[in-house]
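thought: fold this chain, then report.
action: predict
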Amino acid sequence: MISDEAILELVRNFYEHQLDIDHVSRIHGRQFPEFVEEQKLAIQNRDATIEQLQKDLADGCLDAVDANARYLLIRGGHVADGQEIDPNDEGFRELCHWLLRALLEATKRAKEKDQGIWDGKSTDDVFKGLESGGKSPAPRFLDSGMVSRSITEGEDTRDVEENEDDASRNAKRRAAMSPTQYVDLVIAEKQKVGIAADTANQYRYVMRVFEDLCSSMPISKYRTHHITYFRDQLLKLPIRAKELECDSLEKAITWNESQPRGKRRRTLSIRSITDKYLTYIRSVFGHAYRNHLIRENIAEDITVDAPRNYKKRLQKLNARQAFPTDSLKIIFRQPLFLGALSPYRLYTSGAHLDWTWRFWCPLFMLFAGVRPKELGQLETADVIERCGYPCLNITALSNTGTPHGATADYGKDDGGEEQDDDEIGKSAKTPASFREIPIHPFLQDLGFLDRVKASETAGERRVFPEWPPTDGKYSNTTNRFFNGKGKEHIGFLARIGVKTAKTPLYSLRHNFKQAMKKCGFQDSEMDLLMGHADPSVSAIYDSPEAYSLLIEKMKRLAYEGLDFDPIFKARSGNGC
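observation:
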């Protein structure tokens, strides 16, 4: 199934990834109060976790990393998505064994950091030298003209260069790279464990902005004051600055500040600066620090001084709510669902029965918790049978076998116009989004499987080929139609009087979660179907018995106070 060399590479990358996860959690624990309790709980359970991992290794119990191994094999292209993996395969068990050792070693490093030991090293030869979160002084640095050994007087520097080993020369070459060049090395390393094209483009975009505002020079030459200057300039940067057609972002800032106060453009929000720009800057410079190219992680502690209680107020402001039952009644009594005058007059009753994505998207969000993007990129091959029951396979793999990875979803405060996000392809919000969702009986009765068959018969790869992406995203198309876009385009939900700041189209997923709670779904089941579960939870439902129980619960899911019979009656016998 997999060679020893490939196992070694996967395991070492997995170990580094676990160290990075711990490092990031500590950063969030210091910055955001809501992460503090989670970090405290992890520290309290550290000894128990180590003890359990040691016991699992001794007993040969590999369940803790079974899902991780499957995920890495699929993402690494060692097995095809959907291909059955024999848990008793020698290569698979070997991979699981080493992943378990990697998890144990990473947990030990985390415990050492809990005790203030930041230079802990693994005694296992496989993981030596991979520690990424330590703060001990690096053995050598390549900035400020330093080299790996001193040059004696009169010695020809060319001789030194010829005698240096390849690793040293490679390190010097990296130290001389600009951020826009160095970021490709970071992306290449992250691709070993999975990174979406969208996310990679975000990395590159932020580095271009950084060089625009702070000038371009070797990455080893940057200091903390460059990062703080970058942050301060971002606070002044107007949104959609490219529209101003200035020669540089500095000039865009100057132009905006020269305008009368009432005519100035809104600047980037604190959320966008923190969650997007500074996050990528920390990642890139953190990578340079771990590879001994800079003396300290100059971006690690750079944050935005937010107003008091800003985080809580932002969460409260942005919190989506489920639609009230009365609003749901209004939505699903519209001509779009019961019969419209024509495809272009969906607000007037008539004999036209819409069978496009506009009809199916709200229903799938309500009865399956599917994200608009996931439905828009759905392919006919993604409608599968599991335990003899039709399901949606939400995956980043196209039926051509091409993986597109996982992508992050960012806030809309800067409009997204400056993001390099124009690639149209299958992706998932996170690896947890990969899941199989039983198709609710109501959706089957409405003829969804016939809709899939019709697309397949027409030679279409996607279930909804008439669903066009807007600016490279299917979700932008649904947002425009249902939520609207500014004053120039009033959306469907606003027209019928049910849209508020806290009830956009996405609120239907919240209704789905509420319905699952009322029907007795467990938290793990809800996380799985919503696309929030980690691989260990998803692995539970790999067994036919567990998934069959999930199917039965899905069949019973219902909405009290809502009558969907008019939709069914309007479409039965009409060829839809």
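thought: worth noting. The CA atoms of residues 258 and 498 lie 41 Å apart.
final: tokens above.
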